[in-house]
Amino acid sequence: MRTPGQMRILTPMRVLVAACAAAVALAPGVHQTPVDLGWQNRALPVLDDDASCDHPSDVLDLSNWKLQAADSEGGGSKDGPMEILQPDLGKRIVSAVFEVTPGCEAVVFSAGVDGATTKGSNYPRSELREMTDGGSSEAAWSSGSGVHTLTVTEAFTHLPNDKPHLVGAQIHDGKDDVSVFRLEGTKLYVTDGDNAQAHLIDGNYEIGTPFEARFVVEGGEVKAYYNGQLKTTMKKTFSGGYFKVGAYTQANCENSNPCEFDNYGQVAVLDLNVSHSDTAAD
Fold first, then answer.
1. CATH number for 168
2. By the 8 A CB rule, do 167 and 179 touch?
3. Is residue 1 predicted with pLDDT exceeding 50?
4. Region of 91 on the Ramachandran plot (φ > 0 left; ψ -120 to 50 alpha; else beta)
5. What is the pLDDT of residues 110-145, one digit of tens each?
6. CA 29, CA 14: separation in Å to the nearest integer?
């Protein structure tokens, strides 16, 4: 059982080949055992012994994001998860929910199945929501105007019991998700609206393996790339668009046991970039 203030287990990413070889293949109902490197009994990568970072903002540029997350006691409040905006976000860590690895390689997002949920969702999250103007306003762009690009390097590092489903990156419109990168056990999908298994992009994903996910929205189309390769193009017309990145656990206390904070989904984000332009680059 995790003690207060203790970072959750993170599958190592220091040597990708070793991490892949040691990772446990998942099936529904199977609880994985992350690789333990012995760092205070937690499997955490330490790539640079001299690295120093006090907050997630030291690892990622969070100037145009806000955090939506349930806290380590199972929720923000009955009205939904907590929200942390700029400038507070630049100075915050949320214990066991929104932290950095000791070597400053990644920001770790975790969401327990017992966490509070946002309006319209049945599932908990520890996620960044795209903002503008230095974090003062919510982003809201159109699929038919300009070019909107999200590029994130991340790794799924822990899945919930019984229903091992987890979302790591999203495009949202003003009402619902448009497309997401979604892991179900060992199968990684790009979704299309309510079709959660629309496009299988990796049929044998191994826990702890970093990958690059990219969405490009332009001219009424959404293009999804996986490790630099275009995997699918979807026709989409929407407004009120924005990106989300982090851990959106697709399980709750009704379908995953035990109903507690230590049954969770977790994503480590190593790099994160968003760009918007009026026209496509030549």
1. 2.60.120.200
2. no
3. no
4. alpha
5. 999 999 888 889 999 999 999 999 999 999 999 999
6. 28
pLDDT at 4 over 90: no
Q: What's the structural domain count of the chain?
A: 1
Q: Name the token pair of 256.
A: 């995953």
Q: Is 59 in a helix, a strand, or coil?
A: coil
Closest CA relative to residue 266, chosen from 165, 190, 187: 165
7 inside domain? no
Q: Is residue 11 part of a domain?
A: no
**Number of Cβ atoms within 10 Å of the Cβ of 70:** 29
Q: Residue 71's domain spans which residues?
A: 16-277
Residue 208 in any domain: the answer is yes
Q: Distance between terminal CA atoms of the chain? A: 54
Q: How far apart are CA 253 and CA 199, in angstroms?
A: 28
Which amino acid is residue 207, in one-letter code? I
pLDDT digits (tens, 9 = 90+) for 204-245: 999 999 999 999 999 999 999 999 999 999 999 999 999 999
Q: For residue 192, what is the enclosing H or E element?
A: strand 187-192
| Stated pTM of the model | 0.84
Taking alpha carbons only, the member of 113, 2, 97, 67 closest to residue 244 is 67
The answer to whether residue 5 sits within a structural domain is: no
Q: Which residue's entry shows tokens 């790794």?
A: 155
Estimate the share of the chain in helix, then strand, then coil, as percent rounded to the nearest 5: 5, 45, 50
For the chain, give the number of residues. 282
